[in-house]
Task: structure prediction
Amino acid sequence: MPAFAPEYDDDLELLRATAVAAGIIASGYFRRDIKSWQKENASPVSEADIVVDRYLAASLLNARPAYGWLSEETADNPSRLDCDRVFVVDPIDGTRAFLRGEDCWTVCLAVVENGVPVAGVVYAPARNEMYEAHAGGGARLNGQPLVRHRRAGAPPLIPAPGAVHQEMQALGLHYTRGPMYPSLAYRLVQVATGHLDAAVARRGSQDWDIAAAAVILSEAGLDFADVCSGFPQFNRRDVRHGAIAAIADMSLRPQVHSALIKVYGCPAETEDSAGTASSSTLSRDP
Result:
C-alpha cells in the first residue's frame, strides 16, 4: 500500500461506477439461454459470472493496483493477506435466481481495510436499486439516505431456513416468515430498508457474500454479527463465517442468535487457521 491511500468516498465512487457497468454486462445475459455448470460443491456458475468477474478484476485493479483481490469466481491468491486494502467481490450474488430469470440478483463489491469493510455496494440492476455506504458516511439507496421504514403494528418479518424457524418458534418468538431472497446480500440490506426485521444465514457464508452488506448495515446503525464471534472479520486465510444475523430490533437478538447456534453450532477454533480460500470448493449461495 502506498503512503497515500484513497479516501473511502473515492473508493465508494469507484465501486459504484464499476457496479453499474458490471450490471449492464450481466443484464446482457439475463433471461437468455446461456451456458451454466456446477462447481465442485454443486453450486451453479454461469458464463455471465465469469465475464463479469473478469471485467471487475480488470477495472478495479487497474484503478487500484496496490489493492488485493478476493472474488467468488477467481482462484484465491494468498498475496491478498499482505495487502492493507482488498477488493472483495461477488460478480453475481444469487446465480440461481439469475438463471431462473428472477430479478433479485445483485452485484456485490466491497473494499476491506485491515479486516473491516470500509466501502461497499449491493447493486440490483433488474430492480434499479443501488445500496451503498462507506465508513463514516452513512448508508444510501439510489443516492438518498437509507431510512428504515418501520412496519407499525405488524409482527416481525424474518426469513430463515426451516430448522431455524422451528427453533425460534420453540423459543417462543412471535413473528411472520419473510421472503427468502436468493441473494444473501440483498436479503441482508432489506433489514435496513424495513422490508425485513431480521435476516439470517447458515454457517458457511463467505467474505464475498456479506462484506458489502456488512458496511451498509453498519452505517445504517443495525446489528450485524456472526453469532459465535461478533462482527465478522474479513480477509483472513479462511473466508468462511459462522451463522450470521442482521437484526433491526435488538429484542429479537437473544432468540435469533440462540436458534442459529442451536442449529449450526460454532466452528472449532482450529478451523479459523485453516488454509486459504478456494472459490471452486467453498462457493455457494447461502
In short: DSSP finds eight helices and 14 strands in the chain. The radius of gyration is 18 Å.
